[in-house]
Amino acid sequence: MDDLLAFLHVVETSSVSAAAERLKVSKSVISKRISDLEAELGVQLFHRSGHRVSPTENASAYSQRLCQIMNDLDQASELVSKDREAIAGEVKIACPMSLGRLCLAPNLIILAERYPQLTVTLLLDDRIYDHKLSEGYDITVRMGVPKSDSLVVRKLAISSRAVCCSPGYAERFGVPKTIDDLAKHSCLTYANVLPSKVWQFASTARHGKPRSISVRSRLVANSPEILCDGAIAGLGLAVLPTFVAAPALNDGRLIDAMPNAHPTSDVICAIRPPTGRLSTRSRVVIDHLVGVFHAKSDWQSGRR
User: Phi, psi (5° rounding) for residue 262?
Assistant: First the structure.
């Protein structure tokens, strides 16, 4: 098991030093564990270049299967450890600001009330990151699937988006009739999507490719709520997550400027590292969030 954990951490961090730091062992121990595993399997698992390592094709496939096995082991362990009194201790969670404030925080408060011995530490952060697990967080909730194959990912929900503007903006400048018309409009763009000035729309064909278009930014921010405020003020068009825009759409401060064009949706995921058995308290948090999103089909409607 030690060899496998060393392997998974090296895949995730692309660094023997970082893996050693996480597992609190020396670099030579990690290197030996990787060498032992390569000898046992009879294949090379990493390409080595200076201080960086990258997984081979075999290693990528192997890490994905190991993560599935780790998850199965977690679920098996959970079958014999569902004692309510055992739900105690701290769970550290990182999440984007708007998603955390509007969706996660109210439901995590409910969970904390249910389990008096559980401590939830929630960091809301709109920086660009693939995950926060290297900083000691047990769970990262994020928009989009991470690139690393070594992380264990649980899908929570699909977040739809819409092109929004104020009624006043629509009256002064009209609304785009086609995606190409967006080039003529002032737009408010999200800094944490690169490139921020390119919007992507789902294809109208069943198996078609998404359509991308460059837009002219009048306001750039790393917060969807700031972009929503700018759209309400009439600064221009903004592609907004429905859970952010819903209150203003419901009360008429915003309108759906392009109801027949659909910006590509985001996947909301709960992510954890492949560090062996998932603690009961972390699993309770993830299961609670899965239940919240599945049970509340109207979670994006603005009703809390």
Answer: -120, 105
At 28, the amino acid letter reads S
What is the domain class of 84-152+268-295 according to CATH? alpha beta
Summarised one tens digit per residue, pLDDT across range 140-164 is 888 877 766 667 778 888 889 999 9
Q: Do domains 84-152+268-295 and 161-256 have the same CATH topology?
A: yes
Fold of the CATH domain 161-256: D-Maltodextrin-Binding Protein; domain 2 (3.40.190)
For 74-131, the pLDDT digits (tens) are 666 555 555 544 688 899 998 989 999 988 898 899 898 889 999 999 988 876 555 5
Q: Which helix (H) or strand (E) holds 27?
A: helix 27-41
Which fold would CATH assign to domain 2-78?
Arc Repressor Mutant, subunit A (1.10.10)
* Cβ-based neighbours of 260, under 8 Å, separated by 6 or more: none
pTM, whole model, 2 decimals?
0.69
Query: CA separation (Å) from 154 to 88, 139, 142, 297, 300?
Result: 22, 10, 11, 18, 19
